[in-house]
Design brief:
The chain is an alpha/beta fold. It folds into two domains: 182 residues, DHBP synthase, CATH 3.90.870.10; 106 residues, Threonylcarbamoyl-AMP synthase, C-terminal domain (Rossmann fold, 3-Layer(aba) Sandwich), CATH 3.40.50. The protein has ten helices and 16 strands. Strands 1-8-2-3-7-4-6-5-9-10-11 form an eleven-stranded mixed beta sheet, sandwiched between helices. A five-stranded parallel beta sheet has the order 14-13-15-12-16, with helices on both faces. The protein is globular. The relative contact order is 0.14. The structure holds threonylcarbamoyladenylate (TXA) and magnesium ion (MG). The site of magnesium ion has 3 residues, from loops.
Length: 354
């Protein structure tokens, strides 16, 4: 298949939106930017589009897709109409009022309109309204309900640039819409509204504290930061070894000067063994490392910069053939929790605590 590449920096780029919308409405696949990461879009209410998404990503078919909408009232068609789900929708309305459009995905009981192909066989549906003008316009042109997982091959870091999508999806999908670099860089927060209290299944830019301000008590899936619980994550996608670089990544945690010293010693050994080495550093420490490739993830004063560059760095390390990589650790509050959740997965939970 020939994958069309189209640049669309303006939400009113009619030509781009028309052609992308036409592909979506006829059951094809279009990758497009959102504020979190690039998504791989297909019609959510069309089972054959969802099957194509799984095939293009090489994704296990028990891993459900998020349905993206462009206006809140569209939620009612895809959520079950029962007394229980009406109560859950009241919570969804409050959260949407606070955070939509934005990087928050809500899990609710699904209606019969949503095919099991889209929900990976589950009777619940994940819904999100992204805060990105091109994405919103495209969802509307595509018929209002667009299933969109991150536009990476299953197991690779999510794409934060259109060129990352091309690396993974060229020849496998109909179109890539290039809207430049995404704003946030890690996937949306997922909150399950079908349990009481509501539960965060995947941390993101919208934190537990922010959600708690709107709905009161919030639980966390125990698997978010640990792999030792022996439990299966409740978001099926979180159980796969996601975001994994090809080389071996280790996170080192402790006082800054101790971390730098430890990593430099470990790098020296790896280099002596003839291995290619990389470090995920911060603006504060980047000058202090001796590795083949030192990448700063951003500043500790502004962790959003770290979230934004993390996946791109993991991809760069793959491209450069890095074999041994070390990363600094980040605090577990605020956006740091989402950063550490992704980093721990990338490292296969390999952490050195000094
Ligand atoms: O920011 C995002 O959410 C991006 C952009 C493109 O919107 N999308 C994204 O989709 O990250 P994906 O497919 O890469 O991740 C979706 C996650 C998976 O871990 C999946 O298992 C979980 O959401 N999920 C989807 N539906 C679910 C459901 N009904 N119950 C529990 N988890 C669900
Ligand atoms: Mg993904």
């Amino acid at each position: 298949m020939d994958t069309k590449w189209i640049t669309c920096m303006e939400e009113d780029d009619k030509e781009c939106l028309e052609s992308a919308g036409e592909i979506l409405r006829s059951g094809g696949l279009v990758a497009f930017p959102t504020e979190t990461v690039y998504g791989l879009g297909g019609e959510a209410l069309n089972p054959s589009s969802s099957e194509k998404i799984y095939a293009a990503k090489g994704r296990p078919s028990d891993n459900p897709l998020i349905v993206h909408i462009c206006k809140f009232e569209d939620i009612y068609r895809i959520v079950a109409d029962t007394p229980e789900s009406r109560e859950m929708l009241k919570v969804a309305e409050k959260l949407a009022h606070a955070f939509w459009p934005g990087p928050l995905t809500m899990i609710l009981p699904k209606s019969d309109e949503v095919p099991y192909e889209t929900t990976g066989g589950l009777s619940t549906v994940a819904v999100r309204m992204p805060k990105h003008k091109t994405a919103l316009a495209l969802i509307e042109k595509g018929g209002g309900y667009i299933a969109a997982p991150s536009a990476n091959t299953s197991g690779r870091p999510s794409p934060t640039l259109a060129k990352h999508v091309k690396e993974d999806m060229d020849g496998r999908i109909d179109m890539i819409v290039d809207g430049g670099e995404v704003g946030i860089g890690i996937e949306s927060t997922i909150v399950d509204l079908t349990v009481e209290p509501v539960q965060i299944l995947r941390p993101g830019y919208i934190t537990a504290a922010m959600i708690s301000q709107i709905v009161g008590k919030v639980d966390m899936d125990v698997t978010i930061l640990s792999d030792a619980s022996g439990q299966t994550p409740r978001a099926p996608g979180m159980k796969y070894r996601h975001y994994a670089p090809k080389g071996e990544l280790t996170i080192v945690s402790g006082k800054q000067e101790d971390v730098v010293k430890y990593i430099n010693q470990a790098l020296k050994k790896a280099r002596e063994a003839g291995l290619k080495t990389g470090v995920i550093a911060t603006d504060e420490t980047k000058e202090q490392y001796e590795a083949d490739l030192v990448k700063t993830a951003g500043s500790r004063q502004d962790e959003a910069t770290v979230a934004k560059s993390l996946y791109g760095i993991l991809r760069d390390f793959d491209e450069e053939g890095m074999q041994v990589m070390y990363s600094e650790s980040f605090p577990l509050d605020g956006i740091g929790q989402a950063i550490m959740n992704r980093l721990l997965k990338a490292a296969g939970h390999h952490v050195i605590q000094l």
